[in-house]
Amino acid sequence: MQPFSDTEDPEAISQASPDEVWQQVISDFTSAQSKLPQSWDSGNLGRATWGSATAFLGTPKLYRKDFAGAKAELKKVVDSGLYNLTADYADNFTQDAENNSESIFEVQFIIDGNGGWGGDNAGTGKGSAFHPDLAPAGFTGQDGMQVNKWALDFFLDEKRVNGEVDPRAFETFF
């Protein structure tokens, strides 16, 4: 392989088939699974671990309808004892509870004084690259984080068995 910038005619490169891409994804995560540690010290929080590679390995198997293979990989994560549900679901969305027991993989952001990461231009942004895209751009205000009423209604229509709105809605959607 050579760097893309050294390729004389990049448009002449044939595109890999979806099956070849999935096989590469599976190969990469299988390799990572065997090489990554189960955890990192506090100075390396957020780096990929055995658990993140294993969970990500289950995903392409699921998409490829290899349900037994996906179940086997994801069961390894559950059975490892490395991850557990938090007592308070809201802990998954607060800065104080980052990298908690539910966190299989988190991207670590830093406040660096230049507006953060995620803007269209280097050195500008909103502090992160994650902004909810719940509707086409013409219907959603990224800066105001406005949510379409139809999206909210759709989300709130799903009730718990007791008829109440799932309390997780107020942590995940809002």
The CATH architecture assignment of the largest domain turns out to be: Alpha Horseshoe
Structural class: mainly alpha
Spatial gap, N to C terminus: 45 Å
The run of helices and strands is HHHHH
User: Based on CA inertia axes, which overall geometry fits?
Assistant: extended
Alpha-carbon Rg, integer: 20 Å
The largest pleated sheet is described as: none
The CATH topology label of the largest domain is Serine Threonine Protein Phosphatase 5, Tetratricopeptide repeat
pLDDT < 50 stretches = 125-136
Total individual domains: 2
The CATH class label of the largest domain is Mainly Alpha
Approximately what portion of the residues adopt beta-strand conformation? under 5%
Mean pLDDT: 80
Helix tally equals 5
What is the total tally of β strands? 0
Instruction: Bin the helical content.
Output: 25-40%
